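Q: Sequence in, structure out?
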Amino acid sequence: MPPAKKRTRSYDPAKIRAAVLAQFAHVRSAVRTLTPDQLALPTRLGDWTVRELAAHVTMAVETVSRNLDRDEPAKAELALLDWPFATAARAADIADGTRALAAAHPDLDALYDRAEQRLTARLAEAPGTRVLATRTGAITLADYLVTRTVELVVHTDDLNDAVPGLAVPHDRQALAACTRLLADALAVKAPGGSTEVRIPPYAVVQCVEGPRHTRGTPPNVVETDPLTWIRLATGRTAWQDAVAAAAVRAGGERADLGPYLPLMA
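A: Exactly. Output:
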């Protein structure tokens, strides 16, 4: 009997739009409080400072507005679950663009204000079916906004890591969408049904080749919290370090996800 075909996860477009705006607002409020000394702090993202990281967050939403300003492609070519694997090729361009943006806009609050106003205005008039000509490929607005939750949640965590006591909150819907998209990407990269990955309260996926689990307690189980999972999926935390710190509970001979991580780097 062939394995059951997995259905693509669906997302509520209205909730995703609200989540993107809410998470961006959380970051903007926090960036307003940063002192010059804090903006000069290093981050875990290579040679980026906090100022450069903060500027980069505006790029994550400005790309929505900018692509809505462009002509619409004939059709979407990039599926949502293709996106996590299509970003690495642009890493160098993104880094160069981030440094240039931070240098050109010393007034971060003005930069955030412009990005927020443009995003709010453009989303008010654009349907989710609108196709965007992004640099990673033509994709619908509805799908692209889900990817923005990943950008915003991941970089919120980067800011919190870089600035002691900053504690930028995570919007629940944004955190949920980010967690689910990266969990589903793991199931794409490591297809199978021998291992169950649990990321409560947001996601459970089956992955890794081997005997398929059908009932009872799975023989191979991985469980962790959403932020630890996101750090693993994006290369912020190494698998062996998370296991050693007991941030991940992994049991079974096929519970080692190290060979499949990170998904995005």
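The two ends are 37 Å apart (CA to CA).
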